[in-house]
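Purpose: get a first structural picture of the assembly so the mutagenesis plan has something to point at.
Setup: two entries, given in the order below. No constraints added.
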Amino acid sequence: MAGKEIKAEKENNAGEKSSTSDSFQIPKKYTPDDEMQMYKLWEDSGYFNPDKMISDLHEESSKTESSTKKEVKSKKPFVITQPPPNANGELHIGHMCGYSFQDCMGRYNRMNGRPTLLLPGKDHAGIQTEAVFTKVLAERGLDKWEIGREKFYHKAYEFCTKNADHARQQEKRIGLSSDWSREKFTLDEGLNKVIFETFIKMFNEGMVYRDEYIINQCTHCKTALANIDTDHIEKKGIFAYIKYPYADDPTKFVTVATTRPETMLGDTAVAVSTDDDRYKDLVGKKVKLPLTDREIPVIAAREVDKDFGTGALKVTPAHSSIDFGIGKEHNLEVINVINEEGKMNDNAPEKYQGMTVKECRDAVIEDLKNEGLLVKVEDFPHEVIVCERCKNDIEQIMSKQWFVNIKSLAEKCIEALDKRETVVLPENQHRVLRQWFEKLEPWCISRQLWWGHQIPVWYCGSKKFFDWKLSNPDKSIEDFEKETGEKVNGCGNAMAAIDKPEKCEKCGKSAADVDIVQEEDVFDTWYSSGQWTFSTMGGPEGEDFKKFFPTDVMETARDILFFWVARMMMMSMYRTGKTPFHTVYLHGMILAADGQKMSKSKGNGVEPADVLKKYGADALRLWYYTATLPGQSTPIMDDKLMGNRNFVNKIWNASRFVMMKLEDLFNENEIKQLDGEINENLMNLKNADDEWLKQTYATATRITDYINKYRFNLAVEELREFFWHTVCDQWIEETKKLIDEDPENKAKFMSRLLTIIITSLKLIHPFAPFVTEYIWQNLKGMGLLEDGHKSGLLMMEKWPVEVE
RNA sequence: GGACUGGUAGCUCAACUGGUUAGAGCACACGGUUUACAUCCGUGAGGUUGGGAGUUCGAGUCUCCCCCGGUCCACCA
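Result (structure tokens, whole complex):
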């Protein structure tokens, strides 16, 4: 028996013996060192897999009701598709927090008889992993461009697989009862198929399209980014006042003020406010753009703030989103002067071509000064857009990318939120999410990376030709060849397909006769992880999908509400017509002990492994439940963890006391177990006459209620109050007295206490699974649990309160 | 610029739709216990719930103003 074995081992390791009862083997102190032994029992039992619960049910019913042939109906499954951590690095204390809540809900529902699936996985995390792994390669003296795309992909895959193995061990260490047989990686073949199918469906329905648009270009990561992949931070900058001469009278000027003088090379207008009398007469006239030979119009736009700067705004539609908007409205020419690498391109005057943006800025300032067109340069702190990942400056440039028009999906999500088909906790985030859906722009999903899903688009001819045709719809293939000097073999059509098409759908020519080449870009990571709730289940046709979709709860952190949760809702609306989960639970954020955000540079981070070693998984979990409330952020502090460790030890010792007393009782009376009183007590807890048992049941009811309302902090506080201060401090002490006064009834008093302990262990188990299971195995070893679940595991015991 | 959020004991935080005397852990003071646990037990001190006004029979909780933090969104060049 497992319980016996563990007990024996404990005795050997303990090194200290009870001073009260030398014969008693259970050590005084609970040490978390062998928590993983319990994990092994759970894992080996097979019950992390919900199918085992379902098949048990069939087995049982065929035994008892074989003649009636009644249809077996299990309770509704409980499902969480777990947020997949990035497969490129270590898990942090926040991951563990999420797992603790997911596992708590999972264990609670499993004990309630619901076949429970916690579906684990790992995320390939496109841009981040590509950056991390490129660095790893560099450390090995390798360059990604040298080894090439295919090799890079394979090596990155290996790298992630190795990290994932490591992460999985940490996940087990916190007690996560996931079905590892179903673990997925976002680049698994089965998932890829679903993701490609989604794209192809969108493509054929016209929801995805290629367009030239102002996008965020990270010149460091060398890829386009969606708005959400950027941050805004304040940086020191300059504010340059530049004179633009009137075209018809070079002695007169209009002065514009800008933080980005270099972009003036792409200016196509000067805008003034519609109600600015100072410039009234200028509107409609032209000015000469300095350093170039172009003349640009002066226009009136309501976006312009007449009180800011000089009240005259230089308009560069290609490199500023506000200017882009003005340009669209006034039909301005768009001149892109910065390329994907952040250098000045052929559209800039020859002198500046090839300069970096910064070099060009200095050169432009210098040249303006020489021409007497520079009024002044002020220091000016202003907001700049940076890459969310690498924190380098973003250039806004015109670029051709793949976009998804997600407006209709966003509308469906708003409807689902309004109907409360999905509820976000805390409630304020429900409204925040709703507002976010309301102002969604088309989503740029193409990334110029290698690590990810290569977009399943095939061009007849070449991508360059297709893109050229986008901008030159009226021109011919001959024009293209003349302009670019490149030959093209194909009609310029684009098709979506998983495998290379055998012929072009448009011109009908076979792949042998024309070039059919695949798009090189990959999907934005969130495009694939947005499908996580059903891609992990084989897609809308999958076996698991039929059994387990929609899922129940999405438990995650606030910072990926828009990135991920919103995308999952939209993608699920698209593929399944349903919202993928009824509840989004956003746990709180964990800060360092000093109240600051944890960060590597500050060195104030807390390593999960250290905490686990020092206090144990149960103590850490108990802290999470009470401290990391939705919508809050909370510092992780040693004394709090210590308090929770003490509680774990208290549970251990109270149980130890009961076991000791019972062993004494058995020895005195030469019996091996109590009569059926325990089971009777447990069965009748609900209707007990005994005051203590009544109170125990009332507590169980309250805790059940709290869990159902996702108020985990109150559940744990109630448990602590009840177990520590009522059961231990009052009832155990009282029982000692009762036994002293009335030794004849010792068995009766002890069986009442044991009933209370057993019930408490069940109630505590979802929160602190290790210590409770450990005790359970010891109780089992003593023969005190006759009527338990056939697995012999507390994990599989029935929850003390009936939940519908 | 917009939105959200917090200010409660020395510290970190609780307190369901407004409802007894605002709670807990840690820290503190005093006492106890050596036969479950010193990772223990008991007792105690500690609060004008950031400030001000209002609604109400009743406000930590609702409304308004002010002060101080935090977070997110955003195209003031």
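Residues 638-669 of chain A form the longest helix (32 residues).
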